[in-house]
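Predict structure. Chain length: 205.
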Amino acid sequence: MAILSDKDIKEHLKTGKIVIEPLENPERQIQPSSVDLRIGNEFKGFKIIRKPCIDPMDKTDMDSYMESFYIDDGQPFIIHPGEFALATTYETIELPNDLVARVEGRSSMGRLGITMHVTAGYIDPGFCGRITLEISNIGKMPVALYTGQRVCQIVFETMTSPSERPYGHPGRESKYMGQKSPETSKIKFDYEIKGSKLKPTFKKD
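Prediction complete.
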C-alpha cells in the first residue's frame, strides 16, 4: 500500500474519486498526507444503568445503554477524565473500491489526553457516511470539545487491486453504511452472535 500525498488527495477530490463534504477550508484542512476532519454536533454517552455488564448476547437495543446529546454551535461538550463518548465527523466521506482510509487523532488533541478512536480507525473501501468517533479522555482534566473543531485526520491508502466485495456490497453485512449520526455498537448483528444459541449472562430487569 502507498499513502496518498496532498497532491493526489486534491486530484481525487477534484475528480470525485474521494468525496469529503463539506470541505469548507481545503487550504487549512488538507495536510501533507491527510485531511483534517471536524467534530459534529451530536454525541452519545453511556448512562448509569443497573445491569452488571454489556453482553453481546443480550438482544436489548444497544441504544438503551446510551443517551444522546445535541450541542449547539459555539457550545462545548465536556468530556471528563475516564469518560467515553461517541461523536461524529462534521464531514461525510465516500471512498472508491480501491482505497482504504484510517482515522488518526490530531497531535494537539492527544497532548490534551484526548483519543479520537479506540479500535475503529479503519475505513473500508466503498464506505459512505459520516465517521463515528470513539472519544476517550485519558488525561486528568476535563476537556471542552467544540462543534466544527478539527479533532482528527483521515489518511488514504491505495490497494493492490479494487475490492471485489467492497463495503456496502449487497452480499456483505455493512452495518454502518450511510451513517449520519454517532452509531452505537451493532455487535448483536454479527453472524456469530446473531446465530448463536447461547443465552445472555444475566436476566433482564
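Summary: The mean pLDDT is 86.
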